[in-house]
Amino acid sequence: MKKDIAFFDELYSKSKIDPWGADWRGTIGVWHDFCLNCISESLNKSFTSNYPITILDIGCGSGILTEMIYSLLSKKYNIKDYLAVDISSKAISRAKSLHPMSKVNYQTTSEDLSTIQENSFQLILGFGFLPYLTSDKRLQLFSTLKSIKSSDGLILLSSNVRVNNEDSNYPLADLIAKELSVFFSIMNIYKLFLSQYSEGIEAKLLKLNSVLPLSRLLQQKYLPKKFNQYYSKKATDIFPDKRLHLYELI
Questions:
Q1: Per residue, what are the HEC states of 21-72?
Q2: Domain with 184 in it
């Protein structure tokens, strides 16, 4: 990994709820809405109502998005089992403490997923962690996912990507697509432009939160949505911002 387990454990040890601000950041709310809409659209094409599904959710973190996904899917599908895993034991402990009545099975897993006993999942989800893996580790992961996906299964993975000469912390979009194509058929790529300017403003407002009642403002999705809409119109192949690609795979 580009980051080791200790790095993530430390993040969760220092944060009260979620290291990435999933409990207060409007930009994360925009991303969550995007993921939920993509999941709903993809499953509507693949599974009928009340279809019995076994779900694997990789990199669940503190479980905030995971619980949203479970709530969304349980209204329409028969969820036989929902296994949510993370390599960070601190993250899993946080998820269990935040959601004590959850029907999701939260477990710590190894980096190579060898601790997972189930060998046939109808739905595999993984959001946001691919940039933390080297190319070799991503290929190893994709090979494992192919082996544990059921024959009628669907995989949805997302990654922040760069298109050209952007932030080198994110993998090239063409590289991720090429790696995935080794193991899967890419049925669709959902795309979301994420403005770093709105993230920067959130960070500045957070510093003022101790003296001004800004917590409610920070949780609103309106301003991040407007920033994303404005800057996405100006985006070019070399625009210095990140893009979120969500891949629908079979």
A1: CCCCCHHHHHHHHHHHHHHHHHHHHHCCCCCEEEEEEECCCCCHHHHHHHHH
A2: 5-249
